[in-house]
Structures are given as C-alpha cells and as structure tokens.
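User: Is it possible to get a 3D structure for a protein together with its bound compound? The compound here is iron/sulfur cluster. I've pasted both below.
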Amino acid sequence: MPRKSTPRAPLHAAEFRRKLLTWFRRQGRDLPWRRTRDPYRVIVSEFMLQQTQVSRVEGYYHRFLERYPSVEALAGAPAEVVRESWEGLGYYRRAANLHRLAQEVMREHGGVIPADPATLLRLPGVGRYTAGAVASFAYERATPAVDTNVGRVLRRAFHPRLARLGAERRLWETAAAIVPTRGKTAWAFNQAIMELGALVCTARVARCGGCPVRGACKTGRRAAMSPMRPESTMSAL
Ligand code: SF4
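Assistant: Yes, that's possible. Here is the predicted structure of the complex:
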C-alpha cells in the first residue's frame, strides 16, 4: 500500500514501533502458525482463530492440517466431512466458508491463495481483517490488519478520546500509517501488536505498569501521571 495514500503517523509512532518489536522478539509466543508462511496454513489458522482462543485452536489446527494438508485436499473433500472435522470448534459457518474458499481458489486462482488484500476480500468468509492478515502473515506485505485486539491497542495508544462514530475507519488509517514498510518488518509488527492486545493491553485490563510501549502510548502516559488510577478502569477505553 503506498505510504502517500495514508495519513501521517501519529506522534510517538516510531518509538511505539521500536519498543513493540523489541518486546515481541523477546516475549512473543512460539505459535505454530508463526512458524510458517504457507498461505493455506495461515488462512486455516485465521479462520480457526475467529471467535476461538489460541489455546483451543492449537490442537485442532494440527489435526485439520493432517487431514487436509493442502488447499486441493480441502477443496476435494465432501462438505459434510469437512464439517465433521471442525466438530468441537463451533461456529460451523467458518468451516463451510473455508471449504468454499478452497474450492474457489482451485477454480478461480489455479490453487494459489491470492496475495492482494482486495482479491482476498472477495473470497468466502474473508473480511477486511483476514485479508490484511493473510497478505501480511503469508506474503509479508506491509498491509494493516486490525482485529479487536489491535483496534483496542491503537485506540488506547493514539486515540483514547475517539468517538464511536467513524472509529473503525480512523483506526485502520492509523494502522496503515504505522505499519513498517521497509523490508519484512510488517509481519513482526502485526504479530506483535496482536500479541500486546492479547497479553498486556487486554479487554479486561490494561497492564500499563509493565507495558513495553508505555512511554509512547497516550493512555499509558496518562496512567503514569495518575498512579492512583486502578489499571482495570482502562478497560472502558
Ligand atoms: S501503556 Fe497501557 S493502554 Fe497503552 S498499550 Fe500499554 S497496556 Fe495498553
């Protein structure tokens, strides 16, 4: 995505990026889908992680890939068998969409999962976040990927007073402005900001005291100036 089409990065964005990446290199979890750039494996993990926790997904992810090791194997399986393979994960619509996606990739894209977010967006079950995530995590493109965790971190860090109306657009703009465009750092940045939202800056509590980006975060800086403010009250932001 060309930098000129995005708004200017917010104040402290460079420090935020640098500290976040340093923390992720030391503290990021070793998850199976972080060890691969195979677009099929990445897209399976992204579908499974929609509405399901990491700890539950891990076992299912390995079993599913043993049964359907390629997009071709999944596309060729009967729909009811794919549904059975999803049993226990819930939200079966995801399995149906993933199956349809595999068939469409075989039919329309020669068996290759597209790299372009706009093309990904036209596949079954792929929303804006998943399109960005696959482009970044499989193809290492410098695209933003804003899920609930990332949106919360961006809001607290750069727009703590953001009104609900138009918030989504603003958060995507900020993500596009701060995602690194040099080299392959976007992969690590997108993984890192998700990790921060999952482990430190959670929906329930913002652990600003131990947060690596505290000095570059508006909410964290405010918390540092008001030490009496309980961190759990941050969850309202
Ligand atoms: S300093 Fe606090 S609000 Fe800011 S990103 Fe870290 S945990 Fe979240």
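Residues 38-137 form a domain with the Endonuclease III; domain 1 fold (CATH 1.10.340.30). The mean pLDDT is 92.
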